[in-house]
Amino acid sequence: MPRRQGRSGGGDADELAELRERVISEAPEAGSNPLLTDAEEVEADGKVTFSRARRFSELPLSRRTLAGLARGKWEKMTDVQRATIGHALAGRDVLAAARTGSGKTLAFLVPLLELLWRERWSALDRLGGLVVSPTRELALQIFDVLRTLGQKHDLSAGLVIGGKDQQEEAARIAPMNILVATPGRLLHHIDQTAASRPLDASEATPGSLPPQADRLLDLGFKQTMAAILEELPRKRQTLLFSATQTRRVADLASLSLSEPQYISVHAASKTATPTRLQHHHMLIEPEQKLDVLWGFVRSHLQAKTICFLSSLHPAQVAFVHAAFSALRPGVSLLCLHGRQKQMKRLAVYTEFCAKKHAVLFATDVAARGLDFPTVQWVVQADAPEDVATYIHRTGRTARHTASGRALLLLSPSEKAFVDQLSAARIATQRLRPNKQQADAARAQAATAVRERADIKYTAQRALVSYVRSVKLQADKAVFDASSLPLQKLAESYGLAAAPRVRSLSGGGKAKEAAKN
Ligand SMILES: Nc1ncnc2c1ncn2[C@@H]1O[C@H](COP(=O)(O)OP(=O)(O)OP(=O)(O)O)[C@@H](O)[C@H]1O
């Protein structure tokens, strides 16, 4: 988006008048779900509404936004876009749940730009729209989509994601019309930089749009979100999107929305996840896990894979990455976790996006919202904490119209998790480890550790962090750390003896995981 240009000139006046007229006269009925509206019924009724629209070009959108959509090659709307954009254009608050990869980003960015355009917001005005994202990488990705979509608008936009000099950041964002921010950093600015006043509650803030709502309330963000919402003007429009419907989303909705339109795009569908996503699981003993994982990596050299490991501490990710790299698998291995410096995290994110074949070992910092192109496999080597996290992790594949596969490694005692998935409309097929692969992979990781003193220390920390993460799983009926075969596990990590695992006091999990 060009920075600092004047207000839209008189040439836009006719377009503005027409758009304002159409937005009022063609808005879908409040409370209606445009996906369920029969086009013929609407015509017989004599009322033309956006409910009929299948393409962006059929909506009352500015030429500038349409040009941005054409630039991004976005023509036909996805279901969540059809279901929500009409309501949002009509100025209503929206609470929407739709599967991963279904196009939620455009569903909130298009109405945001349109709202500012119809309000004749320009670079001379101050903050008009706010997008809150749980992670820096997702903020960056949203910012990129905003840049493409908004390139013809005379609005300025900035990222508030931390990792840079705060004063410099405050000065940079002060004149911005739209901010894409992570909650912690945003609140920091609100609290600390009164002079730059990035959020000025005395001015109207028409759009306020926190996506990925469930994650925002995880990991200790709840208080931060509440504090941010306090600072926003009461008169505002808020759109809340998530891929899962949880109690936490309902909490955030009640904090932030006013008379929202409830849209659940895939509630009636047989599957809670994208239809082209195939789910698999394997039941294996914990001490076999590294071998099975190594076997998987070696037999999928032509694939792009994300492998999720324990998120409590990055040690597990760092260890598997180091041990497998030492074994030279014949495919690029990358790792992503919250303890990396921001520049490093962004570099890994960009590198993985660009690769055709690679394996990314990651904690849950990569689980939500990130749109890595063409990921074929999501492997969950360490179990997710709940079904919602499972949905977000596997949602990194099979995005939009692509297909993808997911593999979950569980120990036999954790089998009940499969029943929880099935109760949540996720059917997973059991796979058995391939014997040939397993024989070839046997004890390879352990050998790497024994041969490399530097990896041994990481292996010890990884094992401790893995055991602690199982201990801290909230669902005690499924996850039982006391049944873990510590000595056998240690041997599979290349260690002679099991390291001592301190018993844990509760409560620190959310804080620790938030960093990782
Ligand atoms: N109308 C469209 N036409 C073509 N491609 C689209 C359209 N809408 C979205 N996409 C593409 O689909 C992919 C997924 O979109 P997006 O990242 O917005 O999904 P999401 O619903 O936010 O996913 P998650 O729940 O994982 O955050 C992106 O690559 C995006 O460019």
From TrEMBL:
Q: Where is the Helicase C-terminal domain?
A: 276-442
- EC assignment: the record states 3.6.4.13
Q: Where is the Helicase ATP-binding domain?
A: 85-263
Keywords assigned: ATP-binding, Helicase, Hydrolase, Nucleotide-binding, RNA-binding
Residue interval(s) of motif Q motif: 54-82
One MF term in GO for this entry? Answer: ATP binding
Q: Identify the Pfam families for this entry.
A: CTE_SPB4, DEAD, Helicase_C
- Its EC top class is hydrolase
Domain DEAD-box RNA helicase Q as annotated: residue spans? 54-82
Return the InterPro entries for the record. Answer: DEAD/DEAH_box_helicase_dom, Helicase_ATP-bd, Helicase_C-like, P-loop_NTPase, RNA_helicase_DEAD_Q_motif, SPB4-like_CTE
Reactions catalysed according to its record: ATP + H2O = ADP + phosphate + H(+)
Q: Which SMART domains match?
A: DEXDc, DUF4217, HELICc
What does the UniProt record say this protein does? Answer: RNA helicase.
What family is reported?
Belongs to the DEAD box helicase family.
Quote the record's domain comment: The Q motif is unique to and characteristic of the DEAD box family of RNA helicases and controls ATP binding and hydrolysis.
Q: What is this protein called?
A: ATP-dependent RNA helicase
